[in-house]
Amino acid sequence: MDTPGNDPAPRAPNPHGHDVLDLGAGTGAVALAAARCGARSVTAVDLSRRSVAVARLNARLHRCRVSVHRGDLFAPVQGRRFGLVTANPPYVPAQTSVLPRHRMARCWDAGPDGRALLDRICDAAADHLLPGGALLLVHSGACRADVTVERLAASGVVAEVLERVRVPLGPVMRARAALHESRGLVEPLPVLRHQPSNPYAPGPRDTAAR
Prior knowledge:
Elements: E1 19-23, H1 29-36, E2 41-46, H2 49-61, E3 67-70, E4 82-87, H3 118-124, E5 129-137, H4 145-154, H5 171-175, H6 177-182
Parallel strand pairs: 1-2, 1-4, 2-3, 4-5
Helix pairs in contact: 3-4
């Protein structure tokens, strides 16, 4: 997902030489990877105090130069622009629009359609990208990638789906499968029943004889 510029970012943007921003850094894994790949600078942001503390500790333990800030998405970096922004925000559709503040669910709950944070990132990304900069954004197919592409385009970011990966549903998504199916966010899971074959059942040629 690139901003218009003379030199558009490559299909798989490389952090090398870029100022990198990682939103929702968690333990700092992506931020540390960017630092190791030669990013000019790496800034990590997370709303959780615990995540900020862990990310700072990991940066120190791995001797990576990462500036970690606590705040809500782009709030700690207002006025700054980056060559690469990465984000893997909460995207699991939840029962209500009220986002949890002090539970583990804050790591995945993202409102009824799973887009509570995705839409905010899409709307603000262009204001924090350098010309030709890139945004790498990960989310579930349940949140509709086409909506993300359209929303980014409306804000001035040329977007495309770089990769789709099918993986088994995790425990949170499985627990909410019925909710997501009722809202049309995912396809109903097929129910398969295995019935052992009966060697004594009539076959196509001996039905009349039995």
